[in-house]
Amino acid sequence: MRVIADHIRAISFTIADGQLPSNVRAGYVIRRILRRAVRYGYTYLHFREPFLFQLVPQLADQFKDVFPELKAQEEFVSRVVREEEASFLRTLETGLRRLEQVASEARGGVVDGKTVFELYDTYGFPYDLTDLIAREKGLSLDEAGFKKEMAAQKERSRTAAASESGDWVIINDTDSLEFVGYDHLESEARVVKYRAVKTKDKTQYQLVLDRTPFYAESGGQAGDRGQLIFHHPDGEVKLPIVDTKKENDLIVHLTIDDLKSLGDVLTRPLTAKVDVQKRFQTQNNHTATHLMHAALKEVLGAHVAQKGSLVNENVLRFDFSHFAKMTEDEIQRVEKIVNRKIRENIQKDEKRNVPIAKALTLGATALFGEKYGDFVRVITFDPSFSVELCGGTHVPATGQIGLFKITSETAVAAGVRRIEAVTADQAEELVDEQFDTLRELRELLKGAKDVKKAVADLLQEKNTLAKQVESFQLQQAQSIKEELLQKVRRNNGVSVIAEKVSLPSADALKQIAYELNQKVENLFLVLAADVQGKPQVAVMINDTLVKEKSLHAGNIVKELAKEIKGGGGGQPFFATAGGSDLSGLERIVEKGRALV
Fold this sequence. Notes:
Layout: H1 2-16, H2 25-44, H3 56-62, H4 68-72, H5 74-105, E1 110-111, H6 113-123, H7 127-136, E2 140-141, H8 143-160, E3 163-165, E4 169-170, E5 178-179, E6 186-189, E7 191-199, E8 202-209, E9 211-212, E10 226-230, E11 237-241, E12 243-247, E13 250-255, E14 270-274, H9 276-300, E15 306-311, E16 316-321, H10 328-343, E17 349-355, H11 356-361, E18 375-381, E19 386-389, E20 404-413, E21 416-423, H12 424-444, H13 451-485, E22 489-491, E23 494-503, H14 506-519, E24 523-531, E25 534-541, H15 543-548, H16 553-561, E26 567-570, E27 574-578, H17 585-595
Parallel strand pairs: 1-2, 5-9, 23-24
Antiparallel strand pairs: 3-7, 4-7, 6-14, 7-8, 8-13, 10-11, 10-14, 12-13, 15-16, 16-21, 17-18, 18-19, 20-21, 22-23, 24-25, 25-27, 26-27
Helix pairs in contact: 1-2, 1-5, 2-5, 5-6, 6-8, 9-10, 13-14
């Protein structure tokens, strides 16, 4: 009980502080602590259902004056803990059984490293949890073997994404590297160095410039594309840049063109030009992400915190902490708030090199787990609405975004939701597509003014017709059943029916077989059915015949199905099969009659 009390405090405080359970870094520490507590409750208190989450309200009350953040997020923390508990409990029992088996087979009181890794990889048992349980049983773990298995897994991952980088070729030796992309989309520059990078079957080249307007991928924002235009006496040479990334604080420009073939061109001055259209569209999405983050807090509550993002020229994706699926009303409220802020055309207030302590006093949102330097960049769109620490690029005023539209809201992890949205041109295209669809629907509905009512009427009509069809099919099946009752052949106390029939569905075939078995004594039934152009077989054998004559419908139907180039199976008294060759139905009837 002391272990559980200690662990629920650590878990709850940390989740309230913004860290969620995960498989990496700080999140994995929380997951390990939680799973250890769940195992104690499972083994010693015999809890088979989630229980830790029930302690959160009492904990929040006890610490409301010391740690008010937990009280404010009580429901959110409870839900996250409950989901994590439920997830681990699904594999805990199986894993413990496996550990019991391992303990009985352990040689020299040591659990081998491969098994410890299996418990970690398959059942979610962290090493320290397996070690704890093993020590309770008087066993120890092969830690070296476990580390070897872990290293092998990491090596497999590295190999899958292996890349080979060549040495840097120095063109201009300088330590002066400048990023001017916040203020300029074009600048004069020189190549400082370049190298070749081989990844699987392709080679790319990386360049570093002494001055660049290209934004490197970071903070969830995709890197810029564009071109480098070298000024050469023989004419301009254009080099396409397909992506821009950061590596050890270097801004690295990627191209697929062979740099070695350019020769002394690389030594010449150049003009670095960013793809303006891509940058502007990406900025639209990035600024919209800031506006949406603030809107989510306003609609859902202060517990909302960013858990990841991706912004490029086509879409914005935003992961945030929240305990439940957003309702349609909540999604619409967020959209309305963001679009209202866009129409207000709020001017961007950008402050660079702000001491981090001062930035936080301004109310800037700092992301839990993110690393910030002593000086930061603060982006504000209305001091009372959105103030964030951010290194990305943004629109000069929100009106440039034009329109914001959420396209999906889904779950990605325990307590984490994901929104995807579009802005500007993409949002307009989405609205146009929806209106085109609505127009086409109106045309199909003969110009109906109220499309919703017209579709509802069609669905009601469809349901009515479906019930009528079902009724006709039942009548047809009953008629076929009565015809089959007239075709019963008696043979040594066995009632044999082997016939070809046409039926509307597989369910009708099954229903007829069961009804005939109730009406006919000692029935041996083989029905070769044409079900809307597809061959099917059903074999029904009375329980008495199954026992007395050792018959098995499943084995029989497998043999008969060969005639229709198919397969199937089932129980001793009833089995079915399907196939692809309708011409084999007659042969099935002949074989069925010959079986008894």
